[in-house]
Every structure is written in C-alpha cells, then in structure tokens.
Amino acid sequence: MKVNDLKAILKFSAKEEAMFGRFDLPKDAFYPMILSLKVGGAWSYSTGDLKSISVMKVFTTYNEETGTGHTIEEVYLFLDPEYVSKEGTVYRLEKCGGRDERALVTRPYSVTLKAKRIIVASISTEKKKIFIKELDEKTMSFTGPSAFYAAHEMEHLEHIEIDGLPMWAFEYEEVKS
C-alpha cells in the first residue's frame, strides 16, 4: 500500500469516528452501517443490550442527453429494530456468510420496521460525499430488495438459521431456439 493511500485511509477513519461520535451511541452500534458503507450490502450486529441492522436503498439518476448517471445509496441504521408488518412472499436465491452456496428462501415483499433510533447515511457518487442524519421517524417501510435484506438481517438478530432449498436441487434444462 502506498503511503499516501494509508494517510488518506487514516484521515477518513478519524473523520468517520468523529462523525459517528456525535450521535451519543456506543461505537459498535454503527458496525452494520460502517460495513454497508465500506463493503456494501446489509449487516446486523447484536450484543446483550444492543441490536442494530443496516438496510440499503439504491437510486440512480441518469441524464439521457449526456449518457451519464450517478447512484445515490441510502444506508439506514436501525437501533433495536422490530417488525411492525411483513407482507407478501417472494422466492429468491440468497447466500449468507459461511454457506458455500446460494439457497432458495422466502422473503416478504414489503416490511415495515420500527426502531428506537434511525440514522441514515446518503452516499452521493456525484458529489463524493456521505451525508449523515438522524431521522425523526421511528418507522420505515421497504419493498423489494431492501425488504429482503431487512428480513435477512432481522433473522440474524432473532438467531434464526437461514435455511432453504440448496442450489443443487435445481435442474438444468436446455431451451431450443
């Protein structure tokens, strides 16, 4: 690693710690959000008295005239989340942590979660900035992929083993043109 890269990472980490320190929460409460920001995806974390999950929403702005676009990622951090509602059933392939293969699982199409606190980080690829704020709202609803991720992370917090039909239970079939 180059010295300039290492300096930039250390500077970024110091700013990150200062930013998250403003919310008067234990540092480990932010682990799911930090992982979502740095690695992507949704994450969960729990100790005896603290539970948190991160859930991502991704939007794309695209300019037809210039042929360019940008994504905006919103990473929601839920502190001590609980379900308010779950609706629908979606069958999807999913891989989790230590599993070697994907499995067919069921997830709700939409979920509504409530939490003691909700903090959102909006990442603008256009401005190269991460905007962080605490929401006044204590409930959030998600549909589609964001709902799937939320349900998956809630299972982790509830210590439910994620189980499904393994990929090798599927069959290949050739389609003739």
Automatic annotation (TrEMBL):
It comes from Methanolobus mangrovi. Residues 32-133 form the Retropepsin-like aspartic endopeptidase domain. SUPFAM superfamilies: Peptide deformylase. It comes from the Archaea. This is RimK/LysX family protein. InterPro entries: Asp_endopeptidase, Peptide_deformylase_sf.
